[in-house]
Amino acid sequence: MNPHSDILDLPALRQLELAADAAGLALMQRAADSIADWVRRHYPPASRILVAVGPGNNGGDALFAACRLRRAGYAVEVLLPAPGNAAVQAALAEWQALGGSVRPTLPREVPELLLDGLFGVGLARPLQDNWLTLLQALDALPCRKLAIDIPSGLDTATGQALGAALHADITLSFLCPKPGLYTAAGPDHCGEVIIDDLGCPATLYPPHAGTLALPDAAVLRRKRDSHKGSHGVLSIIGGAPGMTGAALLAGRAALAMGAGKVFVHPLDGGLTLDPLCPELMLRPWQHNLLIPEQHQLVLGPGLGLSDQAHAALARALPHAGTLLLDADGLNLLAADHALQQQLLQRHGATILTPHPTEAARLLDVDTAAIQADRVGAVRELARRFGCVVLLKGCGTLLAQYGQPYRLLRRGSPSLAVAGQGDILAGAIVALLAQGLSPLDAAHLAADVHASAGEHYSEQAGGPIGLTAATLLPLMTRELNRRVSPAGAPLF
């Protein structure tokens, strides 16, 4: 268990807290130290700080931190809208012993920093009435905001706002990462996320449910004695009339990510050459086309929903090698239970790469249900279809049944443009062809893709204007950086 990258679900987190309490670790005091230390590093004494104290343990963390800051010479005001639990009462006694007072409403003077200790990871229902009004008022304050453990109002498991949630500049979270910090609306509410394990020994941690850890890219490092056949072969089926660009983008991405040979089989029989990437070998799709079993196979980019597309999927499912289904390959699968049965009978590995609406079709729910519990959705897809599943969106998630799920921290709104899913599909199978496992290939490709999007935003001064084709050289550079980090030999 790595407390800086491995994720516990809420019951396991409660189990850890009980174990730490039994071991006499005084986690609340350690959390207060962590909060006060962060403030001291970033704000000079006498800075005006407003500490919002809620009724639970999150409020206790905040109020004990207020005590430390008052002793250090900070101008601290405490907002205590309602009586709290025993931890809050103990902290309140210490605060009052220091001469501190509390106020039930916001002060007129705007603070330099808000410490948000209203509600933590235990919040399970939408805020209402006075709490909702207060949270909205705190959110509107024109000052920096530090959220304690998680921004008040944000669901720990899903990253969704429970009615409303604070928009923090920094979130100082304790013991381990929580999925709500990184997925759905979480990143827009959390700002910079800092994890502090509070010195809790790794031996106390229960088994983790998920992880932020990345696969090792060093397996892709190339020997001098290699040739194009050393780096895998893949085939892409898609590109119906009017949508051929999708299949070509997937093929170009596969080459950009290091695949040795790439075949594209467009349903549009008139497409025989990609003039911008003549390295792609184009062989129009025919029902009797034989895809060698050593080829990794992608089906879906620009596929369409025609009878011909349906026949292509039915022909691809018995393929002996690994199969990645994307876009209309997923939509056809969702609409046909016979095809789903074929999928379950496959001997080769399968990767599904849905966006939330495609995931909703596969699970026969609406998109809102997927977004309401992205972790639950990706795990259910992996269980139901026996596949590696990559669920796209803010905080991309990956799952393989029986293993901890994986969550990506990286991402950029620059990637919210047409063609990026096609790029990702080609990238995944290129890494698969070069020797990574299906789960690791999907994970590494998604992170390289997301990182390249971030680099674009840095270089362009913002997220606007990125096209899928423009991203490819950035992805190649990012992958090479990981395969051969600074100072490492190239071969």
Automatic annotation (TrEMBL):
EC number(s) recorded for this UniProt protein: 4.2.1.136, 5.1.99.6
SUPFAM superfamilies on file: Ribokinase-like (SSF53613), YjeF N-terminal domain-like (SSF64153)
Residue ranges constituting the YjeF N-terminal domain according to the UniProt record: 13-206
Binding site for AMP: K392, G393, C394, G395, T396, G421
Superkingdom, taxonomy of origin: Bacteria
Binding site for (6S)-NADPHX: 57-61, 120-126, 149, 246, 302, 355, 422
Cofactor mode of binding and number, as noted: Binds 1 potassium ion per subunit.
CDD domains: YXKO-related
Alphabetical keyword list: ATP-binding, Isomerase, Lyase, Metal-binding, Multifunctional enzyme, NAD, NADP, Nucleotide-binding, Potassium
Subunit structure as annotated in this protein's UniProt entry: Homotetramer.
Name the UniProt record assigns to this protein: Bifunctional NAD(P)H-hydrate repair enzyme
Source species: Vogesella oryzagri
